[in-house]
Design a protein that fits this description.
Elements: E1 2-6, H1 14-27, E2 32-36, H2 42-55, H3 60-79, H4 90-108, H5 114-139, E3 144-146, H6 166-176, E4 182-186, E5 189-191, E6 197-199, H7 205-216, E7 220-225, E8 246-248, H8 249-258, H9 268-273, E9 278-282, E10 291-294, E11 305-319, H10 327-339, E12 343-349, E13 353-359, H11 365-373, E14 376-390, H12 394-401, E15 406-411, E16 415-420
Parallel strand pairs: 1-2, 1-7, 2-4, 3-4, 7-9, 8-10
Antiparallel strand pairs: 5-6, 9-10, 11-13, 11-14, 12-13, 14-16, 15-16
Helix pairs in contact: 2-3, 2-5, 3-4, 3-5, 4-5, 6-7
Length: 421
């Protein structure tokens, strides 16, 4: 069994869908499961729908229509390229049914919970993309079965970052999935015990591929990207990024934790447990080797790796009476960070101070600061950048720091992290 995952950039238009088909024809699809993300920037567009639902009702239908038009354009390119009326193909009705379901949900929903609504809305991106792709593959005689991953991947009700119920998921996947045929399913989404849709966190489609691989004891997982493989830096922010030909699970997990965007942080853990190799390859150049992530392989080439996370928040605390910040204080601080769902990226403490760099995913910053100010002197820096360099040397640190205001700097033997304005 092999697992292929295609991201949104790879299927952003009709040409991308056709290229996916050519990849399958070229490399084979026997005993294969294909996991697909929402097309292009659909998740962003559906996030705007959610925002308008809560904050700008006058623009709600307009934002929904943008999503519908985008997918209809792809449908016509794939199934009615000459305008001869092939829109009678069943796929048009299926896609219309999905968007009708979206509108019905938005009209009838009673929940004020933003995170719940978010998951019920953004899931339509994956449901629509996989339906279009499945129907197109069938139309060119690549026979496949469309699978609703929400029926197989079961989670808790932690909306927008759900945790997998591994025992239930393992049982469902191993007993209900016919692995003798090509299956097409969605990344990113699952469902809770009440069958409400949950999501696994942004970029969670990679994680979905790993979940299926783990439960099916897959031979390998291949993530098809619009880059040659795992690079030592994001080329949008760093010049002269280089391809890493191989990397160990451990190092890849650390890079993902620090924010490397090519691999989702949770993806590697289930693969490592069963030693399932991960390949990251370019869907534009299928024959290139890309990057292999595996057990005990040395980083090749051994060069510094750069990661940047923008729009971070640095919170610096000190005791009001100059008393020590010790275990009780730190425990209370982390309890508050957990309560307000802050993702912690860096911590640094001294006898009378404590600093933490976090992501304000759930927009709870002001509530957190209010609680912290009751017991601590608080300084908060918003819109900061967190840089992480592994296998660093003095020269690359000096180059990175040039022209920046350094708010926090932390070095270990292998890694340096720097927070800047």
């Amino acid at each position: 069994m092999q697992i292929y995952k295609f991201g949104g950039a790879s299927v952003k238009d009709a040409s991308g869908v056709k290229n996916l088909a050519s990849v399958l024809k070229s490399i084979g699809y026997k005993n294969t499961l294909v996991v697909v993300s929402a097309m292009g920037k659909t998740t962003n567009a559906l996030e705007l729908v959610v925002s308008n639902y809560f904050n700008n009702k006058t623009e709600l239908q307009s934002s929904i229509q943008e999503v519908i038009k985008y997918h209809n354009d792809i449908l016509f390119d794939l199934f009615d390229p000459d305008g001869y009326g092939d829109e009678n193909h069943a796929v048009f009705k299926k896609i219309k049914s999905f968007f009708d379901g979206l509108n019905i949900f938005l009209r009838t929903n009673k929940s004020p919970d933003f995170n719940f609504v978010y998951d019920q809305v953004v899931c339509f991106g994956e449901l629509v993309s996989t339906t279009i792709i499945s129907e197109y593959l069938n139309s060119i005689n690549i026979k496949n079965q469309w699978i609703d991953s929400r029926e197989l991947i079961k989670t808790d009700a932690y909306y927008r970052r759900a945790n997998v119920n591994w025992a239930t998921t393992q049982n469902l996947i191993s007993t209900k999935l016919n692995t003798s045929i090509l299956n097409i399913t969605q990344g990113f989404i699952g469902s809770d015990v009440n069958n409400f849709t949950t999501t696994l966190g942004r970029e969670g489609s990679d994680y979905t591929a790993a979940i299926f691989a783990y439960c099916l004891n897959a031979q390998n997982v291949t993530i098809w990207k619009d880059v040659p493989g795992v690079l030592n830096a994001d080329p949008r922010y760093f010049e002269n990024a280089q391809l890493l030909h191989q990397i160990s699970y451990r190092e890849a997990i650390e890079l993902a934790f620090y924010g490397a965007s090519v691999i989702h942080p949770k993806t590697l853990q289930p693969l490592q447990r069963k030693e399932i190799p991960l390949h990251v390859k370019s869907f534009l150049n299928q024959k290139e080797s890309g990057t292999t992530v595996g057990k005990g392989v040395a980083l090749k080439p051994l060069i510094p790796c750069f990661i940047v996370k923008k729009n971070q928040i640095l919170i610096s605390l000190s005791s009001l009476d100059f008393s020590y910040i010790v275990e009780d204080n730190i425990s209370e601080i982390f309890s508050l960070l957990h309560t307000y769902k802050m993702k912690v990226d860096v911590i640094q403490n001294s006898a009378i101070s404590f600093s933490v760099c976090v992501e304000n995913i759930y927009n709870n910053l002001e509530k957190l600061l209010q609680k912290l100010r009751a017991k601590f002197s608080v300084t908060c820096y918003e819109q900061v950048c967190l840089y992480t360099i592994t296998h660093y040397n003095d020269q690359v640190i000096k180059q990175l720091e040039q022209g920046k205001t350094i708010l926090l700097k932390q070095l270990t033997q292998e890694t340096v992290q720097i927070v800047t304005k």
